[in-house]
Structure prediction request, 268 residues.
Amino acid sequence: MDSHLDDAHRNSLALSPFQEVYFRKMEDAFFEKNLELNQAKVQIQEHSDELLAWVHEVKAPLTAINLMFEHIEDLQLRRKLENEWLRLHLLVDQQLHQTRLYAIEKDNYLTEIELKPIIYKEIRAMQAWCLEKGIGFEIGELTEIVMTDGKWLAFIIRQILSNAIKYSPVNSEITIFTEHDSTGATLLHIKDIGRGIPLDDLPRIFQKSYTGTAGRESSQSTGMGLYLASNVAHKIGIRINVQSKVGEGSLFTLRFPLQNEYAKLTGR
Prediction:
């Protein structure tokens, strides 16, 4: 749309000379700001594309390094290297999904998903870390099928699982099970018996870069995992609830949308 009104429309307004000048200045200001905004959008998109390209370049050597672990005979050294590799992999994965988050509406596909394979895959991916800490899992039947995006759901579970493993004591268990709430919605619970979250930290754990009391004691904490998980969950209709008590651990619950809630989410 042209930023300047046509002469016929301008004349119909019967502007005074002062109003005419003022009106023209306003139009010029809006035109310049629109140009600046469009340029900023182009720069952000270019930066996003460059960042995605960089992440994909990094993933290639990470995959190659992971394959090399099979040739390391020293089991203790191998596990240490696998654990450090996993930390790096999770950081790169967070960056990848953070970059994609702004275009999630174009990058999600809601369909019927079986929970069990996704959860088991994420647990296997954390195996090196779990072996190092002696973390085990008590897992329910997980027979539920939910309506969601499998790729983004896996990312959410990955962030919650990594948090549970990070703050769990050695030789402890993480419990994963499902149930239904009073509305019939599926609930996925992930429970640890770690240090728990202080009451003052609880309302802020999903804020960007917020590491909290526990995070300040750990060099591994970036404060981005739960922030990204919360944002993704909101976009695909999942609600995350947290119950926690210091010294007794934390319970993260994912509530999946019902059919009518799913219809509102997708506009169908």
Q: What stands out?
A: Residues 18 and 231 are 49 Å apart (CA to CA).
